[in-house]
Amino acid sequence: MSYIGIYSCTLEMPWVSSLKEKRSVVKPITERLKARFPVSVARLAGQDSHDWEQIGITTIHLEAAWVHEILGKVSDFIARETDAVVRFEQLEVILLSDLLELDER
Prior knowledge:
This protein is of the alpha+beta class.
């Protein structure tokens, strides 16, 4: 059995006035997440807005507890390492076989 963990958060940066400035806040955090943790990171929404962005992080492992631990560390890292305000967070761990069953329907 394998577990997939999905974490997403919305980052708000009300002081940012351009997309270029926002990238200078978001890109370093996403790159450091990929370098520090065994995760994949994607920018999900807000790319055309200068003051917020939603990012998603995922990982997979044989143990659900490990997945929870890694994504908990990711959440803590984001809160600690960025000036952006985390306004919304969601963390879900899914058994891979359950996800595959949904796909077959």
